[in-house]
Design brief:
This protein is an alpha+beta fold. It contains 4 helices and 10 strands. It is about 40% helix and about 35% strand.
């Protein structure tokens, strides 16, 4: 039998090399598809500009663009429209409501004081701590109202409504881990397939060569 007719072509080695290259491209596509804003995502999502400040006792309309978990922070150090507010670090007793402008339905504002869930600016001009949690099922505009439980009009203080920064951090971290794991799985899998194919080609070529020499 002719050696050339049974020996696998060296072009199959090129195919083996192409497989991990294709794996790299797929991994890059996964990163782009699942997390296109990875470099600046954490900074963008955990920006104090995403919080809506509300001077209480009082109310304010707030638009929630997405469904999901949100937070109410008590800013015991704050600045609103050039006015400085300074309060006790211990959150006061408050009664808060959130009403949908579209349907009139009330959304629960759940007590959720977490002393470790805090934020502050570098100059500590604004310092906030989580005191309530909100779950929005339907995006839209809602009226947030809050007052002192005893009905007092003083002292005035500031609450800030917006993303729950701890959940945002863990959500972004989870997406990074999942993206990295998926990309690594694709790379390892494509590398293993390429190695197996290269080994199979080498064995087949060796067997063909030995058969040709024997004949």
């Amino acid at each position: 039998m002719n050696e050339r007719s049974v020996k696998p072509s060296r072009r199959y080695y090129a195919l083996a090399i192409l497989i991990p290259v294709l794996g790299c491209l797929i991994a890059m596509a996964l990163v782009y598809r699942w997390f296109p804003g990875m470099p600046g995502a954490l900074e963008a999502r955990m920006n104090l500009d995403n919080l809506t400040q509300v001077v209480i006792p009082g109310s304010k309309d707030i638009t929630f663009a997405d469904s999901g978990a949100y937070a109410v922070y008590y800013e015991y150090r704050s600045v609103v429209d050039g006015i400085v507010y300074a309060s006790s670090e211990t959150p006061p007793a408050l009664a808060c409501t959130l009403i949908s402008k579209a349907t009139g339905a009330e959304v629960a504002v759940v007590p959720d004081y977490a002393k470790t869930n805090t934020y502050s600016t570098k100059d500590r001009e604004r310092v906030g701590v989580l005191i309530r949690s909100i779950t929005i099922d339907e995006p839209g505009t809602y009226t947030f109202s809050c007052r002192h439980v005893d009905g007092a009009s003083q002292p005035e203080m500031v609450l800030a409504v917006g993303p729950n920064f701890v959940w945002e951090f863990f959500g972004i971290a989870a997406r990074i881990v999942l993206t990295a794991a998926a990309g690594l799985a694709v790379l390892v899998g494509s590398g293993a397939v390429a190695a197996f194919l290269a080994l199979a080609i080498a064995v087949k070529r060796r067997q063909s060569h030995q058969a040709a020499m024997g004949s």
